[in-house]
User: What shape does this take?
Amino acid sequence: MPTPCAGSRLPAAYDLLDVPGGAGHRVLLQLERLGTPLGPVLTVQGAGRGLLHGREAGDGTGSRLQFFVEAGTTASFLADLKDLGWDPADTDIRTIGVVLASETPLPAAGSPRWVRPPETERTAVLPPARLLLGALAYACRRAEMRRFLPVGSRAD
Assistant: This one.
């Protein structure tokens, strides 16, 4: 089992928001440009990807991004999505509840990789999940809708 990356500073516990790679990369760029406080982000291969309305969801490559968020903040995930006006069934966002850093296998070389690595100088301060949910839900839904547009009508 891989051990945590040498020198990385993660909180003792955290939650993860797991989204399709294409949507996750788009949101990550937007949030970084806006200066939104973010935690580490990991890319993983989507083994066992979920199904959305009977079809495989995601960007077609199987990669997914995992956004590290404040521990316990994904507990209200479904209610938070509904409060933001989203039907949870219309997004391909998954949550991974409280993860203990001391028991967490982190990526080894050539395995899942850091898109946004954890802090090395100080313990990372993670955002609450709700801060990211609206942008992630929109990007996931938009990516899913684009899959069904004729090639010539896609606008980016």
Notes: The beta strands are 13-20, 41-45, 51-52, 55-56, 63-70, 94-100, 113-116.
